[in-house]
Amino acid sequence: MMRVVHTVAELHKILLPYWRKGDPIGFAPTMGALHDGHCSLLRQSRADHNALTIASIFVNPLQFGPGEDYDEYPRDLQNDVKIAREAGADLVFAPSVAEMYPRGFVTFVDMEKLTERLCGAHRPGHFKGVLTVVFKLFAVVRPNHAYFGQKDYQQSVIIQRMITDLNLDVKMHIMPIIREPDGLAMSSRNAYLGTKHRQEALVLHQALDRAKELIGGGEKNVKKLQAEVRRLIGAVKGAKLDYVSIVHPETLEDVNDVSGKTVVLVAARFGKTRLIDNVIVD
Amino acid sequence: MMRVVHTVAELHKILLPYWRKGDPIGFAPTMGALHDGHCSLLRQSRADHNALTIASIFVNPLQFGPGEDYDEYPRDLQNDVKIAREAGADLVFAPSVAEMYPRGFVTFVDMEKLTERLCGAHRPGHFKGVLTVVFKLFAVVRPNHAYFGQKDYQQSVIIQRMITDLNLDVKMHIMPIIREPDGLAMSSRNAYLGTKHRQEALVLHQALDRAKELIGGGEKNVKKLQAEVRRLIGAVKGAKLDYVSIVHPETLEDVNDVSGKTVVLVAARFGKTRLIDNVIVD
Q1: Predicted local distance difference test score (pLDDT) of residue A1
Q2: Which CATH code, of 3.40.50.970, 3.40.50.2020, 3.40.50.620, 3.30.390.50, is assigned to A3-175?
Q3: How many CB atoms lie within 10 A of CB A89?
Q4: Domain segments of chain A as ranges
Q5: Across the interface, do B109 and A111 touch by the CB < 8 Å criterion?
Q6: N or C: which end of chain A has fewer CB within 10 A?
Q7: What is the pTM assigned to this prediction?
């Protein structure tokens, strides 16, 4: 029997016995429009023997910039609840915007440096919104284990940094990217893509695969690798590249050459749809 | 037997049984140089039957601006520990700067509006530093009850707002201002004052008393009240006024006239020493 809860007070009442007994809570914060990527987080929480597996479904206005897709973002709570249940969630927390940000709300969690790079440079204020909502969700759920997808690689690094810096007692789990059969990384935003852009978007995964292959073959030169990824994406008419970056896995700083664990990240727009993807190489 | 603890790990080990059992923890965060104002917080925590009363002693570099008194701020841990013990603390948490802000620290708690007014306008970044350190101290202590002094009125409003906005499970207690026999509000910074400035600083309390008296006599006109406070402080040669403000007790917005609960706040410098004081009227 899965429960759907809309208020912090109701959630508090349900969770208090778990907090008291120290029974582990696993938690996956989402914006809904659940796909198999989200499901893999909930399944992992079950597999990790958490006493309770919780998914939150909240389209967080704070992390959308002006002109971004806050209004269009897909919302279908009933369907999401069904998917979450099937993936093993015991509880769905689906608060309203007023429940999360009541009148007079003025407090934020923010971060220097890590939030200014990559997607942060293209979406000012985005990670401030992410940090604030994830912090609040952690505060109301008090999970022992939190599950995030590697697809939002920068987000996962930033949240791990917040956990460390703010002395939060949460263990972070980053789960591998789940892909469609043809390689496209699963994303709620894939639903926006028309047939043409859906086909063109495959280039993100293909270009990353090519970079991985070159690195596997001994290529360490970042400029050459970036040029190759840019060339492949540039060859696709409908793709507008935001960035190709090859960075240190924790500092997210550009590396000079590929040696040790390194992350290759891309972001590109297909029409109005902005997609991201990445690959970790070692 | 009072314990003095310097690391988060050591603190965690001691507090875990209290968290598990739900035994209430009372907490007063301080920057040391303890005086009777601080002691009143610890005594209240004892009186409130907390299972454990904790004082933290940490001169927080983040809340000092460039050119402020971070280096000069009085530090005497041995004496502070003695005072805290006598006031009823069971544990003193005195972390190093490296323990609170390890290499790579980049995360902050910040707030709009409330932090921009009053002292915030004169000390840019100050409340960001206060919010961040108080948040972190809350995260490592996980107090049920937190005790702050009304002397730092704006700080107490801001911390209460953070607690509300970030869903923190802490009850805030604001304790009355403790004064020297001649009326000067107790402050660790009073130790900076030479004989002349010490005498001159009495005007803060006297001017607030006069405002309170006028309000008690029916004066509601904010401009007149401010003018009178300004006149009294202006008559003191060594006093440099930062502000006289008459504000709403929660929004800290200037009120048009005194009706209902209202706070009169002053900040002034005597030589290099910046002092604040306030009075709540109803």
Answers
A1: 74
A2: 3.40.50.620
A3: 32
A4: 3-175, 188-281
A5: no
A6: N
A7: 0.97
